[in-house]
């Protein structure tokens, strides 16, 4: 997200200074006029044109930051126009916080569906040694959780998920905006390939930096009992070593890269296809987010199933190929899409809340900056009017 910086030239009347009859100057030695004794005197305040006539001159100084501070809104003006206060906060900081909050709210609201999805995804691997059936349905998963752990169990593992999703969402959306700038062409336009690359890089960056918390969340969701996050983290470190925090990182990176790339790219492109007036509507952002999340989920869900089964304690799979072969042998093609229904029910509102909230805040920031700049222009005009009078 680039902020355009435009120079501003301000004309001011300077008292006791008369305009010179000399309207133009010419020089043949290509030297600055103020360095030429033929044109100006040593004092810099007056000079001669070489023909015996003298004149006075003035200079123009452009100081962008000084002008912005000089005509900045007063406290009274900020109170009168409260939206402009948002412009005082750094744009990137505002968007970073907005992404974090929207991600936390979205994940908490859909935590029960996430728990159900994880049980359905990993059921076959968890009971492989018990001789039980290899799949579990949506209703059966809900009944099992409530029977064993109560309604509270539907939100089990949500705390480390929220802790993770705050930096995850913030890093992901913030990185996407910056990667888009990086992949822009010489004409400052962003191609479809550039958008996909930006989304993939943003997804991998956020996943790598927050991956241990994702593994911890999974262990809490599928392990029996009410163990705390700290107990599970210490147990993993003691029994499995530090590498257990990065189990399944490979398929996670390969899975999240196309998911975020497709999701964000479709969101941007579809939204741009609407008329400008429609683009500003929240309904447009919501519809676009639902569409992009649905297509991305259908394309990338099998890789999510693979990484979840590789994250589990005692997983029989050492590589991604082992996991693909094992899931196919045990449950066929449908095994890669176990838990897709709760995932759709979770991902669609979650992704929609996150992208719609973020898009709304971006528009709010732009409106705030425009309001702030309008007050500055009014103050500048009022100041110039006083000088003219």
From TrEMBL:
Q: Which Pfam families match?
A: Mito_carr (PF00153)
Among Gene3D superfamilies, the record links this protein to: Mitochondrial carrier domain
What keyword terms does UniProt attach to this protein?
Answer: Chloroplast, Coiled coil, Membrane, Plastid, Repeat, Transit peptide, Transmembrane, Transmembrane helix, Transport
Swiss-Prot/TrEMBL GO biological process terms:
transmembrane transport
What family is this protein classified in? Answer: Belongs to the mitochondrial carrier (TC 2.A.29) family.
For this protein, the record's SUPFAM superfamilies field holds: Mitochondrial carrier
Q: What is its main location?
A: membrane
Species name: Cucurbita maxima
Q: Give the top-rank taxon of the lineage listed in the UniProt record for this protein.
A: Eukaryota
What PROSITE patterns does the annotation carry?
SOLCAR
Q: Where are the Solcar repeats?
A: 90-182, 190-273, 280-364
Topology relative to the lipid bilayer, per the entry, is: Multi-pass membrane protein
Q: Which residues form a coiled coil?
A: 358-385
Where located? Membrane; Plastid, Chloroplast envelope
Protein name stated in the entry:
Probable envelope ADP,ATP carrier protein, chloroplastic
Identify one Gene Ontology CC term for this UniProt entry.
membrane
